[in-house]
Amino acid sequence: MSAPLTITQSGHYALRAQIYEGTTGYDYNFDGAQLVNDGLSNASWEDGSWAPWSVLPNGGGTVNYAAESGSTAQEGGVYGASDTTTAAGSVYQDVSASPSPGQSYTFSVWIRSKTGNTLTGTLALWALGANTD
After folding, report:
1. In 10 A of CB 56, how many CB atoms?
2. How far is Cα 81 from Cα 72, in angstroms, rounded to an integer?
3. 96 in a domain, yes or no?
4. To 5 degrees, how large is the angle CA 67–CA 79–CA 33?
5. pLDDT tens track for 68-83
6. Which one in 17, 20, 93, 97 has a CA-CA gap of 20 to 30 Å to 56?
7. Distance between CA 118 and CA 123 in Å, rounded?
């Protein structure tokens, strides 16, 4: 999946690459995340940790997460795994950046269901910090 973003205003201090999980009760597996024209840290979870990725529950729910190893990894041998108890719980990473108007970015990530079930969700790329007036 991929999400494009073109900057239209100045004053941003970061980009947020975010994966909203729309299906509850099933594991999402993530691997090979990329942020074109800037970089994500631990983009394929190969260091065996979740950092610097964060989770954001929605509506008082829970987002569970872990770095797991195994043959289901798309790149290397480790991948991120997560599930949520309420639709739209999410995982994200903020990247310090000072994008200028006219610059374009694309966030992409490999996503699959650990159990083969159909998953829903939204991939988003946000520019943080500018006044929208």
Report:
1. 14
2. 11
3. yes
4. 120
5. 998 888 888 999 999 9
6. 97
7. 16
Backbone angles phi, psi at 102, to 5 degrees: 95, -15
**Burial environment of residue 87 by CB neighbours within 10 A (0 to 12, 13 to 18, 19 or more):** middle
55-58 CB contacts, 8 Å cutoff, 24+ apart: 55/82, 55/89, 55/90, 55/91, 55/92, 56/18, 56/89, 56/90, 56/91, 56/92, 57/84, 57/85, 57/86, 57/89, 58/84, 58/86, 58/87, 58/88, 58/89, 58/90
Q: For the chain, give the number of residues.
A: 133
CB 53 within 8 A of CB 80: yes
In a domain, 38, yes or no: yes
Question: Does some domain include residue 110?
Answer: yes
Count up the domains in the chain and report the number. Answer: 1
**Reported pTM:** 0.90
Alpha-carbon torsion (116, 117, 120, 121), positive or negative: negative
From CA 47, how far away is CA 54, in angstroms rounded? 16
Question: What are the tens digits of pLDDT across the range 31-86?
Answer: 999 998 778 999 999 998 999 999 999 877 899 999 999 888 888 899 999 999 98
